[in-house]
Task: structure prediction
Amino acid sequence: MSKSRIAIAIDGPAASGKSSTAKAVARELGYRHVDSGSLYRAATAARLRKEGEPVAWTEESVLDAARAVSLSPVDDGFVPLLNGRPADDEIRGDAVTHRVSLVAKMPGVRDWVNAQVRKAGREYDVVVDGRDIGTVVFPDAALKVFLVADPEERARRRVRERTGREPSAEEMFDETARILLRDELDATQSVKAVDAVLIDTTQLTQDEQIERIVELARLHNVD
Ligand code: CDP
Ligand code: CDP
Result:
């Protein structure tokens, strides 16, 4: 019989640093990183390839399109493939970002994502980032972390990530509005588990944030 696998859950709002942190923590511990948001994005991109106007998007039509998506193991993580090919720029683009929260509200799509993430968790020790990993997907996770940060700091991070420089006042205004809108759209599915450790990352560097979670993992004896 295979040994039972370990899951670490990292949840939180957009640009709180979940994916970059989860990836680094997984590398540090020798686990695999699973980005659950990438599957919601891949399903959205697959549906978008068929038709751009979301008014007609039913759960069935999204699930039908999502048959083109597979989650493929790579190095220390997983990448969603669309018709067998990586499509990172497409799934991270604005067209998908604008529509993904709507797709993520569809219960059948949530079941589809959760089944794939749980399968990865049966096969490997995993660090999974998302919104509901500690509450729904892995309620028995060995360690649960919920990252938060002020909306302005999250907006600054997003602009820096996109442009490689500090944001102008106008960029800050626009990006903060986008972050707040996505917080609102994601509010129902983004919930801190009662037993999750809350970390406010507003004043933390990326490295400090990673170090804190690795320390917590060691305290929980999950390394
Ligand atoms: O990286 P960012 O926070 O911008 O988003 P993401 O993790 O790529 O997730 C994209 C979207 O998928 C989120 O805005 C949520 O609507 C949805 N999502 C979710 O509902 N549940 C998850 N476990 C992960 C993502
Ligand atoms: O996955 P999520 O949307 O929560 O965030 P991310 O994609 O991991 O991080 C968004 C950006 O913020 C990345 O460029 C990170 O390197 C950066 N970041 C930062 O500057 N300081 C932190 N303490 C955490 C993340």
